[in-house]
């Protein structure tokens, strides 16, 4: 079992550009959540996808969007990048709420210059 | 709104000494509580969780935590720290297991030999 895998591991982008981050959930998991972890802070919830729909959303602007595919993998897209978007982006997968453990990937380190 | 406070940004303990990391939460109902550990540049690994029942929960790597409703606390403890325990520790609260998590800012543990 490969666990939660994220790609790429590191990424450098320029202000104003767009970026797509990818996540493959743990085998058997159908729910994917994304978190942003700025340097020196705890992870902050961005949104969660289940059955290809956004089910919950945190306090992030519309520049942050996502998608979930039929195979449960997910993408996080960020448009019009700002320097403040530099962070570690973590993906977590789980079974539907009520009887599930969230497993985290290793994250994608995004640097905006 | 849910919130988590970890009062200690850094803690240094000697190898073999006992450890207690503090966590206070704010949540309107019975919380689901978690402790995660993060090594540098890595994702999050679940140490233990509390949903209901016995207020003293055991986790992996010899860690335990005690839920105290009257104090809104969920402190993490370990009787004897090993050098490999050096990492950052995050306390988190959730409404439903596997659902959105709210994290504290983390406590960095340093272990001196």
Helix content of chain A: under 10%
- The succession of helices and strands of chain B, N to C, reads EEEEEEEEEEEE
- Tell me, rounded to a whole number, the average pLDDT of chain B: 93
Q: What does the main sheet of chain A amount to? A: 7 strands, mixed
Strand content of chain B: over 45%
Biggest interface found: A-B, 30 and 22 residues
Tally of strands of chain B: 12
Beta content of chain A comes to over 45%
Description:
The complex is a heterodimer of chains A (113) and B (113). With 113 residues, chain A is an all-beta fold. Chain A contains no helices and eleven strands. Chain A has strands at 5-7, 10-13, 19-24, 31-37, 44-50, 53-57, 64-68, 74-78, 87-94, 103-104, 108-112. Chain A is globular, with a radius of gyration of 13 Å. The termini of chain A are far apart. Chain B is mainly β and 113 residues long. Chain B has no helices and twelve strands. In chain B, strands 2, 5, 6, 10, 11 and 12 form a six-stranded mixed beta sheet that branches. Chain B is globular and about 40 Å long. Chain B starts with a strand and ends with a strand.
Q: What keyword list fits this structure?
A:
heterodimer, A: 113 residues, mainly beta, 4-stranded antiparallel β-sheet, B: 113 residues, 12 strands
List the helices and strands and how they pair.
The complex is a heterodimer of chains A (113) and B (113).
Chain A (H helix, E strand, L loop, with lengths): L4 E3 L2 E4 L5 E6 L6 E7 L6 E7 L2 E5 L6 E5 L5 E5 L8 E8 L8 E2 L3 E5 L1
Parallel strand pairs in A: 2-11
Antiparallel strand pairs in A: 1-3, 3-8, 4-5, 4-9, 5-6, 7-8, 9-10, 9-11
Chain B lengths: L2 E3 L4 E5 L4 E3 L2 E3 L5 E7 L6 E6 L5 E3 L5 E5 L4 E6 L8 E8 L6 E3 L3 E6 L1
Parallel strand pairs in B: 2-12
Antiparallel strand pairs in B: 1-4, 3-9, 5-6, 5-10, 7-8, 8-9, 10-11, 10-12
């Amino acid at each position: 079992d490969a666990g939660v895998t994220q790609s790429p591991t590191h990424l450098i982008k320029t202000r104003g550009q767009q970026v797509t981050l990818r996540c493959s959930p743990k085998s058997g998991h159908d729910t994917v959540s994304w978190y942003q972890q700025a340097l020196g802070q705890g992870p902050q919830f961005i949104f969660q996808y289940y059955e290809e729909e956004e089910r919950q959303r945190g306090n992030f602007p519309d520049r942050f969007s996502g998608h979930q595919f039929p195979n449960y993998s997910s993408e996080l897209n960020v448009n019009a990048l700002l320097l403040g978007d530099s962070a570690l982006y973590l993906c977590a997968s789980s079974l539907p709420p009520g009887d599930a453990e969230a497993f985290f990937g290793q994250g994608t380190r995004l640097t905006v210059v | 709104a849910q919130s988590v406070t970890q009062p200690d940004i850094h803690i240094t303990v000697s190898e073999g000494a006992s450890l207690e990391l503090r966590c206070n939460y704010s949540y309107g109902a019975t919380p689901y509580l978690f402790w995660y550990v993060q090594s540098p540049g890595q994702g999050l690994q679940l140490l233990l969780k509390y949903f209901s029942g016995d207020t003293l929960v055991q986790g992996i790597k010899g860690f335990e935590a005690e839920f105290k409703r009257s104090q809104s606390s969920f402190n993490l403890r370990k009787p004897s720290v090993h050098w490999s325990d050096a990492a950052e520790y995050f306390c988190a609260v959730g409404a439903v297991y596997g659902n959105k998590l709210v994290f504290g800012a983390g406590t960095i543990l340093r272990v001196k030999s």
